[in-house]
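Structural prep section.
Before we set up the soaks we want a predicted structure of the protein with copper (II) ion in place, mainly to decide which crystallisation condition to try first. Input record follows.
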Amino acid sequence: MGAGTLSRDASVAALDRGGSSFATFFLFFGVDLMKAGAILRYGFGLLAAAASAGALANPKPWQLNMTEGVTETASRVHSLHMLILWICIVIGVIVFGAMTVAMIKFRKSKGAVPAKWSHNTLAEVLWTVIPVLILIGMAWPATKTLVYMADVTESEMTVKVTGYQWMWRYEILNYKGESTSVNFVSRLDRQSDTTRQLNSGLSPDDVKTGDENTYLLNVDKPLVLPTNTKIRFVITADDVIHSWWVPNLGWKQDAIPGVVNQSWAKIDKAGTYRGQCAELCGKDHGFMPIVVNAVSPQEFEQWLASQQAAKTADTTSVVAPGRG
Ligand SMILES: [Cu+2]
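Run finished without errors. Recording the tokens verbatim:
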């Protein structure tokens, strides 16, 4: 696999998440039909490949719309997206409908004569006021959602996420008022990593977790999180800008060296949620996936205790020889 193939792999994974909704966006706005066509073709090719390789992580084959996610934030973002999509559809139908009618009914060959007037105050007021009202109508719920998303108060635990070229570090700083020592690095899983190597001779289709194809979407050590718990994330990076993105949580946050950004999530449903780095961060940008394993608070507490015990054992074994 050359460098071109590597970056294609990364964009395949990215397209799988965002491509189809972008295509819908382009189509409805009529901004760039050729680009939308190319993206759609790429998307369909990919979906066909995905269907043959079994179900993908979270997005389903042929899924065109955004995910509804597993947090209140994600569902609010989804509703906003649907509201604005429908507003755009209505506008699109009216505008393109009026244009089509005008072009067919008032064409020159039918003897149409153009009107000579150049100003109409009422029309000008209307085409200014109506779009302003529409924009306010969209900005109001969008701002409310943004304010809701920014409110990290009353969180019950804090997870620090640090982006590196090309892996993530997770530190569970505190849980229910107590600080913890859990701190680990999460990298691309071995199977994806061996498969992606130049001339590995291995097929990405064979990288599976259960039934789903998890090529470039699996890690060696997932981040385990409790459900029904308000989790604050503090996000930073140690080299270049990365971005921590798990679509099912409903947000992505840039990880910037020297800056601590924050966000939060309260996961409603247990499950495995996959994501990726969403900021082009160097040659292995496509190879630093994210896996969140959401489990019940009881299971999480057990996991946390086992991680802390392992940490203590580690420290003791390092210290012991020196003492002896
Ligand atoms: Cu990155």
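Observations: Residues 91 and 262 are 36 Å apart (CA to CA).
Flagged for discussion at group meeting.
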